[in-house]
Amino acid sequence: MIENYLESTVNEIISATKCQPRTFIFRADLKFPAFMERSSMHDNNHVLSRFFRFFKYELTKASAPYRMSLRYIWAREQDTSDKPHYHLVIMLNKGVFDSIGSPLPDEFGSYTRQNIYHRMMRSWLKAMGFHHEEPLGQLITIGEHPMNGLPWTGVLARHDWCAINEAVYVCSYLCKAYTKQIGQGIQVFNTSQGKSLIKPDV
Fold first, then answer.
1. Which of 75, 47, 49, 89 has its CA nearest to residue 181?
2. Looking at residue 202, what is its pLDDT?
């Protein structure tokens, strides 16, 4: 574990619980299509910034008339693939969003439904420059609980330290040093509060 990343993860989760009575939290992994050739898109994190911009727009539409609330943690990793991938922790207001929804595409193989998973897929496809209805398969996987291997979601409340401790445990996966390309001039970790405490050129 990279200690400063773990500290930022704890701070982000605690901050989320202070902003609303209950927080819906889950992990997700963003992957590039296997057929996509390596390009300049993979040499920076602009595509991730576009994803969050599109996703915030989707959430704003879905949460009206409530105020949209989104907190996140992300890590960029790459091991044997020629392209990186992103691990995310997403935190939303439980009073507005309380499930991810089915990850299965519609009858045409597209992601047109109004659940969180389909909104994420549309955002990720548009961020990469694809049409949001292109049937490219499931490029987002929901993170699993390390103890039982099941897709993990959680609900956090202020002072519910059992739930908070479990969330920190599950989300600490983003803080591992292995597969992070530190030292290549590309940021590999950050939170919605902007606290990436280890610079990428260290």
1. 75
2. 28
Q: Over the stretch 94-130, which tens digit does the pLDDT of each residue have? A: 999 999 999 999 998 899 999 999 999 999 999 999 9
> Angle 38-41-46 (CA atoms, 0-180°, nearest 5)?
155
Which ranges constitute the DSSP H helices of the chain?
Answer: 3-19, 46-63, 116-128, 161-171
pTM of the complete model: 0.92
Structure token pair of residue 11: 């701070």
Mean pLDDT of the chain: 91
Query: 189: alpha, beta or left, given left = phi > 0 and alpha = psi -120 to 50?
Result: beta
Report how far Cα 29 is from the mean position of its chain's Cα atoms: 6
Strand bridging mode 70-77 / 189-191: antiparallel
